[in-house]
Records
---
Amino acid sequence: MGLSSFIERCISSFRDAIKDSFTNDRDFTLFLCIGFLAGVAGGINTSIFNNFLNDVFHLSETARGVLEFPRELPGFLVVFVLSMLAFLGDTRITSISMFAAAIGIAGLGFSHSFGVLILFLMIFSMGQHLYMPLASSIGMHLSEPEKFGSRLAKYNAYNLSASLIGYGVVFVGFKYLHVSYKTAFIIAALFYLFATFTSFLMKKQEPHHKSFKLIIRKRYTLYYLLCMVNGARKQIFLTFAPWVLIQMFHVGPETFAIYGVIIALVSIFTRTLVGNAIDKLGERKVLSIEAVVLFWLCIGYSFAANIFTASVAGIVIAACYIIDSSTNAVDMARSTYMRKIALHSSDITHTLSLGVTVDHAVSMSIPILGGLLWSAFGYQVVFMSAAVIAATNFVLSMRICTE
C-alpha cells in the first residue's frame, strides 16, 4: 500500500510537471519535443548511414569523399533557401525542414542507384541544414539573455537523450531482428514526421522576417572564420572517422549503435557542462579548450596504428571517435558568441545561417581532398591535416572578445 501510494505520487508529480511546462513555457516545451523526436531519427541515421553506403553501394574512400559534395551542398545553399522562406517565420520553416528530412531519409531506404541516392540525400540534407540555424535562433528567442547557454544545453540534452532510443532501435533491430536498412530509414522518417506535426503546434511565430537579407559585417568576420575552420575539421571527422572504423576495423551498425549510446550518455553531461561554462567562463575559454582537445584527438587518429597493436589501435581510435562526437556541444558557444556581438537582433538568424553556409563552403571540398589524400598516402595524413586545422581554430578562438 505504501509503495502504491508512492508510485501514484510520482505519477501525479510527473503529470503536474508536464502540465506546468505546457502552461507556463508551452512553446519551449514543444521546442524540446521537436528536439527529442529529431534526436531519435538522428540516432538511427548516425548508426547506419556509413555502413549503408559501404554494404549497399560499396564505395571506395575516394567515392566516399566525393559524395560529401552533394550531401553538403544544401548546407552551402541554406542561406539562400532561408531568404526565400523568410516570410513564413522560423517555426514554420522548421516544419518544412522536418518534413524534408522525413521525405529524404525515407527515400534513402528505397535508393537502388547512385543517382537516386544523391537526390534523396540532398533532400534529407536540406531538411537537416535548414534546421541548424533555426534551432539556435528559436532556442535563444525563447530564453532570457542570461540563460542562452543553459537553455540551448537543455534542448541539446533532450535531443541527445532521444538519440539513445534511435541507437537502441538499431542495436536490437540489426543484432536480433535482422531488419533491413530500408526499414530502419522508414522508422527514422516517421519520427521526423512526428516532429513536423509538433512544430505546427507552436504558437509563437517570432523571429519572423519580412525579408531575409544577406548580412555581411566586418564585426562578424571572426565568427565566419570560426565557422570556416570548424566546418573543415568537423567534416574530416564526420566523413573519415567512421570510415576508418568500417574499412580498417570492420565495425558494423550494431557496434556504431553502442558507440552512439556511449556518446549520448557522455554528451548529456558535456552539453550541460558546456552550457554552464559558456554562461560562467565565456565563449573564448570554451572554444579554446575545445581546440586543444581536438588537436590531440587528431594526433590519436593519426598515430594510434603506429604505436599500438591492431586491436589496441582500434580501441584507441574508437575512443577518439566517441570523445570527438561528444564535443559537438561546443557549437553552442559559436552561436552565443554571435548573439552577444550582434548589432541588431534581426541580424542573428541571418548571420547564423550565413555561418552555416560559410561552414559548408569548406565542408563540400575538404572530403574530396581528404579522399584523394587517403588514396595516395593513407588515412593518417588526413587526420594530421585535421590537427593543423584544430591548431588554427585555437589561434582564432583566442581572439574572441564579447565586451
Note: Residues 27-196+212-397 form a domain with the Growth Hormone; Chain: A; fold (CATH 1.20.1250.20).
---
Amino acid sequence: MPLLTDNYTFPLAADVQRTPVRYVTRYGLEIAADLYCAADFDQNTVHQAVVIGPPHGGVKEQGAGVYAQEMARRGFVALAFDPSYNGESSGEPRHITSPELFAEDFSAGIDFLGTLPYVDRNQLGAIGLCGSGGFALSAARVDPRIKAVATAAMYDISGAIRNGWQNSASEEDRKSMLSEAAAQRWRDIDSGTPALTPTFPASIPSDGGPDPITSEFWEYYVADRGHHPRSIGGFTVTSAMSHINFGELRNLNDIARRPILLITGDQAHSRYFSDDVYAQASEPKELVVVEGARHIDLYDRTDLIPFDKLESFFRSGLLA
C-alpha cells in the first residue's frame, strides 16, 4: 500500500478515532504521539490502556499505529508514539538512539495515559515492536506501573550492538567499535554535525540488497509497503557508545509476577531474541510463534499478527 496523503501507511478504520497528542518525558523532551480509541467508546467509564513503541527507526505512522488501531477496535485506549529525537518528537541532534531514553519514552507514555480521566491508572500495559520490544522490557523492569508487557518481532538493540549478531562479537570487536565511536566524536565536533550510520536508499536496487536481512527491511521501509519520509534508517554513529555501555537485556526477573508475551515468527530472522528472553524471564510468560511470519510481517500484516491473543493477554494481564 503506498504512503497515504496524510502520511500514514495504513487507512484509518471507520470505527476508530485518532487524536494527535503531545507530552513531556522526565528529561524534558516533548513526545509526539497519536491516541487511538474506538469511535463509540464511553468517556464516562474507565478503560484499560496500552502504550506502543515503533520498530527501531520507525515512526508512529507505521507499525505502531497499526497495533494501536487494532487494540482500540478491541476497546483499549492505545497510544502510539515517536521516540525521543526521532519522528515528530523533540530532541537535537536528530536521530539519536539511546536505550535509556527510549525506555523512558514508554514510562512517559504511561504518565500521559494516567492523566486521562477515562483510563484506569492501575491497568496500563506496553507493547514494543522490534527494537521497542527490548526498550519496553527495560521500562517494565524499573516501572511497576506497567502491569503487562508484550513484544512483537523483538530485537535487543543494545545486545546486538554490544555482542554482535547472534552474539558473534569478540572483546576486540567491542574495543574497536568504541575506538571508532571515540574518533567519530572528534569528527563530529570538528564538522559541527553528527554523522549518521547508513540511511535507507531512495529505491531498492535491482539485486534486492546486500544480504537477506537488509533486503527484508528495505522491502518494508523503502518500498511503498511501509515507506515514511521521517523513517530514514540511520542513527548518529556515536549512539553506539550508549548501547555498548547499557549492554544486553538483563535483570528480567524484576518483571516477575507481571505477565510477558513474546510474539515472533517461525521465519523471523530475529526469533533468537525472543527465545533468549523467554528462557531468561520468570513466569508468567508466553512465547507465541506465528506460522508463516517473517520479522517485518509482524509490523503490519493484520492477517498474521495475533491480535486476539494480544487482546486476551492484556484483558487478563492488566487485572492481575
Note: The first helix runs from residue 63 to 73.
